[in-house]
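Form 7-S
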Amino acid sequence: MKNSKQIFLLLLVFLPGCISQFIPRTSESPELLIVEGLITDKYGNSTIKLSKSMPLGIRSSANPVSGSEVTISDDLGSTVSFTETVPGTYVPPPFFVGVIGQSYTLHVTTYSGSGILNYESFPMKMNPVPLIDSLFYEKVLILDNVEESSVVQEGCQVYLNTHDPSNNCRFYRWEFAETWEIEIPYTVPNKFCWVSDNSSVIKIKNTSTLAEDRINRYPINFVSNLTDRLSKRYSILVNQYSLNEDEYLYWEKLQNIAEQVGGLYDMIPSSIPSNVTCIDDPTEKVLGYFSVSANTSKRIFIKDQFKGLVNQYPDNQCIADTIFGGEPFPANLNISAWIIINNFMPPFNVITYTKGCYDCTTRGTTTEPDFWTEGK
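Output:
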């Protein structure tokens, strides 16, 4: 009996080490073309990105497809050629802008060791989109810790209102860009910076089942107290796009899978059909979508007092040691250390090994955005 127990314990110890990653077999090509295309009615907003998918079990941020021919044709017989700016990214001439009511077709020719392949999208009509009526925010009490002694914590929920009195736009999609100002709480050369980030979640809405094409209090973005976005001044620019029903269904399927697996690129390739096909080989699957959307945008600024914001520069992370008054700077100090001056006590040098505590450009830029003076 004793020997049996020993064998069982040994199995418990060694079995976890025998677990290996399971990668299912698939008949699909390990490299499929991914098309991320967007044509709008605004100058400078149209881009086509081409990349290749990776085999299951391999993660890669990008595998761009360079050297391709990319053109757009419309239903009036005009054709516009796109130019590759960075690997895999193609943009139209500065004069190009989409026109509401017209249909556009994407044409792509790729060149590789396997030969020349031609791809084409379905014709996509640009539907009109209404203006964003308003962007506004409300403070949200965070109830993660409800003990009487706990510090009150507040977040910020940004909402959107829009409506289309003509009922021409029944399918919507939104993207947003955030910008916020940060300040390092020490006297350092790069003390003030601006940080920017783009939305990474799918925001869509269907009003086709509603009597009125109106959207009220749509939650665009929640800003928690765990970042420094709300510490000084915060801005959010929201882009509103019109969709046709087929594209809305595409984004809806993508949204459902992203919510289930936790990422946009963890999905099974064949689960979401594209509107782009390979002319030379109709059996070849293509990922992604060629979007044609009218676009309107709106920006708001938020400068308010929010309770319980987390300190991004705590002493236990930023301060390694101090050198008081006239003490000389130690010659043998590790070259990876930086010197910062505390603002709130008699001058002394603070040694930090975390560059972000000394230099805000590790996260952002010291160049103030052109739009930052708006609303002041």
